[in-house]
Amino acid sequence: MKYFGALLLALPIVISITLFSSPSHAISSCNGPCQTLDDCTGQLICINGRCHDDPNVGTHTCPNTPSPSRGGCRPSGTMHCHGQSYPKYRCSPPVTSFTRATLTNNDFSKGGGSGASECDGRFHKNSELIVALSTGWYAGGSRCGDRIKITSTKTGRSVMAKVVDECDSMNGCDGEHDDDPPCRNNIVDGSNAVWHALGLDIEVGEEDVTWSMA
């Protein structure tokens, strides 16, 4: 009986510790604090520690969402090839802590179809964790050698990869670009190693990812 009484006295303490120590996951709305993409409600994303509209989606829930430039990223003309018209871009969506992108696959080796990497003028093994970025994100080579963190929205896996090349969003449909049309402005073109590290099937061709500067 004495032990039972002691148990009853200790029970409220245990309950209090459980309630106050259990992890909580706050959901923030417009301009609310955030650290990860999941901290923001709806289609909002975390930009500079605050929840804002995603510039890629084009929603206008929040009145003070940062904008990369007046009017956003607009095409810089079009290119006609293969019987189709393709937009050309000098810009890309703004880089945030969770920049949404489309992951494609590139063969960086000699004879793989594309030329030597823009950053170093070299070919690379596809076993290397390397990527090419759309022209706007490549930023004239200013990100050459930088490492970015890529996360798959399908598998949840992340990988660090090195920027070695540009995925040209202004030029294409010629021998230099393996007769491919201009790259879209939201592309992270990854090596085989990047796809494998993210647990993705290269045969699918394209996957949704997010990326940020490491």
List the helices and strands and how they pair.
Blueprint: H1 2-21, E1 45-47, E2 50-52, E3 78-81, E4 84-87, E5 99-105, E6 130-134, H2 135-138, E7 147-152, E8 158-167, E9 187-190, H3 192-197, E10 207-213
Keywords:
214 residues; alpha+beta; six-stranded mixed β-barrel; two-stranded antiparallel ribbon; 3 helices; 14% helix
How would you describe the overall organization of this protein?
The protein is α+β, with helices and mostly antiparallel strands. The chain has helices spanning about 1-20, 135-140, 190-195, and strands spanning about 45, 50, 80, 85, 100-105, 130-135, 145-150, 160-165, 185-190, 205-214. A 6-stranded mixed beta barrel has the order 5-9-6-8-7-10. Strands 1-2 form a two-stranded antiparallel ribbon. The chain has a two-stranded antiparallel sheet with strand order 3-4. A hairpin with a 2-residue loop joins strand 3 and strand 4. Mean pLDDT is about 80; it is low at about 1-25 and about 65-70.
> What characterizes the major β-sheet?
6 strands, mixed, barrel
Q: Uncertain regions: pLDDT < 50 for 5+ in a row?
A: 1-24, 65-71
Helix content: 10-25%
User: What order do the SSEs take from the amino end to the carboxyl end, as H and E?
Assistant: HEEEEEEHEEEHE
| Overall pLDDT score | 79
The count of helical stretches stands at: 3
Distance between the termini: 60 Å
Shape: globular
Please tell me how large the radius of gyration is.
Answer: 23 Å
Give the oligomer, counting copies of the same chain as homo and different chains as hetero. single chain
Which range does the strand content fall in? 15-25%
Q: What structural category do the secondary elements indicate?
A: alpha+beta
